[in-house]
Amino acid sequence: MSATVSPPRPKRALPPLMQVSDAAAERLRGLYAGGQEGKLLRIAVSTKGCSGLSYDMSWADAPGPGDELVHDNGVTVLVDRKATLFLIGSVMDYEVKALSSGFSFTNPNEKGRCGCGESFHV
Fold first, then answer.
1. Which CATH class is domain 18-109?
2. I want to staple 23 with a disulfide (CB 3.0 to 4.6 A). Which of 15, 34, 94, 99 is the partner?
3. Residues 42, 48, 49, 52: is their CA dihedral positive or negative?
4. Higher-confidence position of 1 and 55
5. d(Cα 41, Cα 71) in Å, to the nearest integer?
6. φ and ψ at 61, to 5 degrees?
7. CA neighbours within 13 Å on the CB side: how many for 48?
8. Which are the contacts of 33, defined by CB distance < 8 A and separation ≥ 6?
9. 56 Cβ partners below 8 Å, 6+ apart?
10. How far apart are CA 113 and CA 122, in angstroms?
């Protein structure tokens, strides 16, 4: 009796870790050229809020050993390696509203958000 060896299945392409919208890239270019020149935006996920998780953004002088680099739309952002599983497939945007403006995330991993929008859960 001979054993049949099947060829390995081709690996499925992984979705990008994160994408940066045109508006977010434009805002980041302005920040990188202005007061945050020479720094990079680091995105992490921290335990916080009613739903348990919150997006945390800070400035870094250089990538750390636990950072993933995301190059998209002509800009580079850092993603804390501990946050990658929460952020796979997310899109970072920049919104200007009547009374506020800021970065926002469309995250396909989110299962829900708290009422105030500060936190989410997966």
1. mainly beta
2. 94
3. positive
4. 55
5. 12
6. -75, -30
7. 10
8. none
9. 43, 44, 45, 46, 48
10. 9
Domain ranges of the chain: 18-109
In whole angstroms, what is the distance from residue 12 CA to residue 24 CA? 29
Does residue 6 surpass a pLDDT of 90?
A: no
Structural tokens at position 19: 């994408």
Asked if residue 107 lies in contact with residue 121, where contact means CB atoms within 8 angstroms, the answer is no
Taking the C-alpha atoms of residue 48 and residue 33, their distance in angstroms, rounded to an integer, is 31
Q: Is the pLDDT of residue 19 over 90?
A: yes
- Render pLDDT for 52-90 as a digit per residue (tens, 0 to 9): 788 899 999 999 999 999 999 999 999 999 989 888 899
Backbone φ and ψ of 55, nearest 5°: -75, 135
First CA to last CA distance, the chain: 49
Mean residue pLDDT across the chain: 85
Residues 6+ apart with CB under 8 A from 62: 40
Amino acid letter, residue 44: A
Q: Is the pTM of this model over 0.90?
A: no
